[in-house]
Amino acid sequence: MRFDSFLNMFKYYADNGDGVALVYDDGDGKKEIRFSGLIDAVNARKAELAAAGKTSIGIFCSGKKDCIITIFAAVAAKMQVVMLDESLSDKVLAAQIQKADIDMLWADDEETVKDFEQYMNGGVEKDAGRILFFTSGTTSAAKAVVLTEQSLCASAYNGSQKLPLTADDTLLCVLPLSHVFGFVCSLLWGLSCGAKVALGRGTRQLMVDFDYFKPTAVSLVPMLLGFLLKNELLNAELNLILVGAGDCPDSLLEAVAAMGKRVCFGYGLTETSSGVAISVSGDVHAMEICPDDEIKIADDGEILIKAPTCMMQGYYKDDESTAAALKDGWLYSGDLGSFDSDGKLYITGRKKEILVLPTGTKIFLPEYEGAIAKALGNSELAVILLRGKPVLIIRESEDMSEELLTKVASVMRELPQSQRLSQVIFKQDPLPRTPTGKIKRWELQKTEEEKYGNNNEV
């Protein structure tokens, strides 16, 4: 079903069976709230927000029932809703609050609100109706993407057309709602199909939540899927796993398939309100385009997307970046892809994951880093450009001996001289990653440039 608002979505299912919308446990046992009850709770919170007279609310997205009700209520009140990731550093959160013109904050606890109130400012125009998600910022500082209730509903519709759920399904919500993949594919996908959405109880309960809620479907990022498989935490009732928000090793996908569970891969961006293509059968890497979307491949292999119902309005207060990304209605994704003879889309890499050396030589990082990771048996690494030359950043391990450097050298010998590493830098701490598990290459780049400089010497 197509819906133009969250409340209309809930009303449809309230009027047609009034099934269970949310299953949750806030600490005093498992409880349920039906679609009619969800409508009542959202409207009550909407009245409270309207009485406050504020225009732009920053919500620390915990994923708990009250958080979800507040998100839907703020949207219904036509506030500007800013989705904040509570796992980020205080410095980053302070900058995001200021950037998004927030004049009201909501969190599960008052202490968090008090800690960040000082960064609020004057708000925005009345009835702005915008929903801001910050990009994960793997290759540059995070931007605030302007989406709407309508674009998110359209994205949920697209997903439901490719992977429909029913009222008999339970979708487990364990991804951060501050990221569009989590919000759409871990929450809205289930609600738009009239399925039950079970709200995960956080990282401390992750080891038992699959057995506790017994979901039939779940959306996961690759790193989380790997953790669940390693610890054998997937419940028997689970029959559909949607993986997205990053490259997924074939070994993980094959492990799921070997368990007799259906695994699908989704491709999308924050700028398109989440998914634009999903694999539904056969080769998990071969994806079908979602109903409302159109994709073409540019001459250099870049994926260009036209998604009129799901496309962002732009980057908040950043016309220059918006103009660079959106041209004549096409989003320049920065991803590389190709179509097979059946029109299925394959992701082949990331355009921004290409290092261009001062000599004009280009290094395609997924292949380059993959070869090093395979030789070392260690994926906690990244390659950046420093002083005009490729440099390997790797987390220290027990094996910091000559053997490690010998293994790296063996990989380098297979490459042209111009593409070989100039330096290996060891880090004691884990490399910085986004909540979806991608290495923050731009952050590493900035840190090392501040230390060593980057004057593009050849």
A few lines on this structure:
With 458 residues, this protein is an alpha/beta fold.
What count of helical segments does DSSP give?
A: 14
Instruction: Find the count of extended strands (DSSP E, 2+ residues).
Output: 25
Structural class computed from helices and strand pairing? alpha/beta
Strand order of the largest sheet: 2-1-9-8-10-11-12-13-14
- State the end-to-end distance: 58 Å
Helix content: 25-40%
Poorly predicted ranges: 454-458
Mean pLDDT: 90
Major sheet size, sense and barrel closure? 9 strands, mixed
Outline type = globular
**Radius of gyration from CA coordinates:** 23 Å
Binned strand content: 15-25%
Account of the 3D structure:
There is one protein chain. With 458 residues, the protein is an alpha/beta fold. It has helices at residues 6-15, 35-52, 65-76, 90-99, 110-116, 149-162, 180-192, 206-213, 222-230, 250-258, 319-325, 365-376, 402-412, 441-452; strands at 20-24, 31-34, 56-60, 80-84, 104-106, 131-134, 144-147, 170-173, 196-199, 217-220, 240-243, 262-269, 274-278, 288-289, 294-297, 302-306, 314-315, 326-327, 330-339, 345-350, 354-356, 362-364, 381-386, 389-395, 423-427. The strands form five sheets. A nine-stranded mixed beta sheet has the order 2-1-9-8-10-11-12-13-14. A six-stranded mixed beta sheet has the order 5-3-4-6-7-17, sandwiched between helices. Strands 15, 16, 18, 19 and 20 form a five-stranded antiparallel beta sheet that branches.
